[in-house]
């Protein structure tokens, strides 16, 4: 299944990448109709054009059907790169969980200012003491980040490279977080932190050395994608997706 963004320019770029892959024989043309057939069968379980174009169907019902389809799609695509279970399993609900998320552009004028609030709320359902602290690549880690890195029993680092130009700055931030946690874990008597990294964009976000981290990818930061990855991180659902080849 190929999930394309709403932005027309980015959508055209995605289509061009598929066409280039077929032209270079990296993607067999026969896979396109086969994939389309699988998507059609999957989609028919939740939403059909007959229902979508039915003027008698309330708009709210159509919106709910689309949201259900999106959630099921993202549930099928979430990929756990680490083979072991989520490190949050067995963690006391009273533990402090630090959620570090990037400042990213709003996907739509009606979208919330911080799209990762959805992820924070989902995690709070199991861990009421979630501390959601956004970061910017230009400023890196601040004193607030370092304070919570010292206190949190578990750290969830969310990555999202909006463009390849951000990769270098993101690498620097990842190293800063890792250095801070290594210093903390080396302190005598200090309990080792449980570490999770979530890729919400290109899987190349996860190219760094994340030894000791539990790694999962959901490919996007829409509401459905973040709700789906939260279920996997909390151990409520098994990840069934695979990294693209």
Give your account of this protein's structure.
- This protein has a six-stranded mixed β-sheet, sandwiched between helices.
- The model has no long low-confidence stretch (mean pLDDT 82).
- It is globular.
- Helix 4 crosses helix 8.
- The two termini are 13 Å apart.
- The chain has helices spanning 8-23, 31-44, 49-52, 59-77, 117-124, 143-151, 167-185, 223-233; strands spanning 79-80, 97-102, 130-135, 154-159, 194-199, 214-217.
- Helix content is 41%, strand content 12%.
- It has 245 residues and is of the alpha/beta class.
- The protein is built from eight helices and six strands; from the N terminus they run H-H-H-H-E-E-H-E-H-E-H-E-E-H.
Q: Could you describe the largest sheet, including whether it forms a barrel? A: 6 strands, mixed
N-to-C order of helices and strands: HHHHEEHEHEHEEH
Radius of gyration: 20 Å
The strand order across the widest sheet is 1-6-5-4-2-3
Shape: globular
- Which parts are unreliable, with pLDDT below 50 for 5 consecutive residues or more? none
Number of strands: 6
Approximately how much beta-strand content do the residues carry?
5-15%
Q: Report the helical percentage.
A: 40-55%
Distance between the termini: 13 Å
The secondary-structure class comes to alpha/beta
Average of per-residue pLDDT values: 82
> So how many helices?
8
Q: Summed up, what is this model?
A:
With 245 residues, the chain is α/β, with parallel strands linked by helices. The chain has helices at 8-23, 31-44, 49-52, 59-77, 117-124, 143-151, 167-185, 223-233; strands at 79-80, 97-102, 130-135, 154-159, 194-199, 214-217.
